[in-house]
Amino acid sequence: MNEIQLSRLDRRWVWAAAVGLLLFLLIQVFPSAGSLFSSGSSNVLTRSEAEAKAIFWAENKFGLSPKETSDAEITHLSDSDTVGYLSKYRLHDTYDKTWSNSAPTDVYAVSLSSSAYPGKLNLYIDMVKGRLVGWDHVPTKKRTGQASSGEGINESKQSAVARALQYAEYWGANPAEWNPDGYVQDDGSVRFTAASSKAAIGKAAVKLDVRVPASYNALSSAFPPWQSGFVRYGVDLPTDFLHDLKTQQTWSSKLSVFGFLLPSILFFILAIIYAGTYGDRTSFVRGIFLASVFFVLYAGITFNMIPGLRAGNWENGSSTGEQATIIVSLITYFVMAVMTYFSAVGGDGLWKSMGLALWPRWQEAGYGDSVLASMRTGYFLAFILLGMQSVILLAMENIAGSFSSSDATQSMYNMSFPWLLPLLAWCAGISEEMQSRFFGIALFRKWFVGIARKLIGREPSGRTVSALTFVAIVPPGLLWALGHVGYAIYPFYTRIIELVLMSLLFGWFMLRFGIMAVIFAHVTLDAVLMGVQMMFDGLPGDFAAGIFSLAMPGLVGILIWWLHRRLRRPAFRSGT
Q1: Position 140 confidence tier, pLDDT thresholds 50, 70, 90
Q2: H or E, element range at 406
Q3: Whole-prediction pTM
Q4: What is the pLDDT of residues 185-209, one digit of tens each?
Q5: Alpha carbon distance 336, 260 (integer Å)
Q6: 67: nearest Cα among 111, 108, 113
């Protein structure tokens, strides 16, 4: 078997990496860091601090002593639609100057249970200053016929509105900021919109929804009743924006199912078939370790992200508990781990059947040195990829009007231990490179060269094989891109264009430097993005964790190199 000679980095690659890193810093890092520092949002409450603030407000505003509250659940919630609107029309600064103090788009929702009052008391806490910016009480049973503001207590609309605004004032609302002509909604609550004295947020209007318990008496000096009531802020977004956003999300869902999920099932079956067909050219031990690492890490991250799962259920209005979501997630990740294993075996067999070896084995004497070289190469390749990604996203923003929203399900503020986030980089690097690059490109290259051989009746030329190899990068790259359309980046085709172009580089890098270098490049790319995010997320200790994230791929590469030197013993030779 003629094994290809994997390339080494020369000065041109180093210069390309330097340019890529510079573009990444100029386009993605410096603007974000500057806006964070200028907004003064460098310190964010930890989850435990948010819980302490909520207990303080429960006692001082609701009359609940700490002994009466239990089972606090802390969830980071984000108004993703509003964040997307502000991002699309560049209105973040306007919103920050006018409404971020009283109606922030991101809050900690602290759910408290009380033995005296069945149900959940949800307190919405400002993530930076710890102020109470809204609340609602969700009874154990749905309210039936309980009177509140409006016709249920035989009030005129005018008196119901006045009563609701007076009630909201106790909870911190400034009556001067709200139009007095609120309207009574079907659930008995009253909606107010921001007064004209406040700066407009484009075509959007900030709203205040208030539901007053029937027993509320403005003349009472005691704590006002709050059972089954609420005081909540939000934003009324333009109908055309919401319609467009819904259309984009519908397209994303369809593409995720028909463009990614169903083809992935076919890929899974093909990986099993080709692992069996070419198993004699490889070893069925290959891939077990990587697949196991993938599953163990993802399982740990799933439990670390339980608040994020809760945020997803919260936003979707789902009553499904986190336990059911965890079980489904673990089953999904196990299936993905099995697919990663068969992709590793099938991919290695396919490449070797074509006379190519892109993945060294532990038993080889130079394995540790190969890992070390792949790690170093991976950093330079990652910088090139980061630069290309930055240019693509900048171009899409200016040409197609691309914008991003927020996703609380993936938020570090919804992690029990945020410093574990960089481990996710290994999950993506292992599974996606083994499936989309190592197996996917080998599969299509095998098909395309085989078809060319039958069409021309002989072995295709080297130039033809090279061209077909390049073409073989595209289909699995498209599948990989379609697996990311569910991210909160719009229009939906933004990520498709970005990742298809990125897949061309990933595929080229694998063919030139081997699969280990590409895995390290992918892990490093994600680790850098996560590390930068952690360095500026405002949580104590996360700046150091971000620095560790940047160094993590290198540390792992050095560890593997060291272990190989320590654990692999030279074969026994007789006579020595």
Answers
A1: confident
A2: none
A3: 0.91
A4: 888 899 999 887 666 788 998 999 9
A5: 13
A6: 113
| Cβ contacts of 490 within 8 Å, gap of 6 or more | 84, 88, 245, 248, 402, 403, 404, 405
What does the DSSP 8-state code read for residue 280?
A: G
For residue 136, give both structure tokens: 């609602």
Look at residue 451 in the predicted model and tell me its pLDDT: 96
What dihedral do alpha carbons 373, 379, 385, 390 form, nearest 10°? -170
In the numeric block, the tokens 């200028």 are attached to: 38
In angstroms, the CA 134 to CA 465 distance is 64
Distances (CA, A) of 59 to 63, 127, 349: 5, 19, 66
Helices (H), 25-76: 30-39, 47-62
Helix (H) / strand (E) element for 161: namely: helix 157-170
Q: What is the DSSP letter of 225?
A: P
3-state class (DSSP) for residue 231: strand
Tokens of 422: 């960089």
Residue 341 vs residue 228, higher pLDDT:
341
**Bridge partners (DSSP) listed for residue 281:** none
What is the torsional sign of CA 323, 324, 326, 327? positive
Q: How far apart are CA 348 and CA 100, in angstroms?
A: 54
- Residue 312 is classified by DSSP as H
- CA dist list (Å): 524 to 251, 312, 418, 543: 31, 28, 18, 17
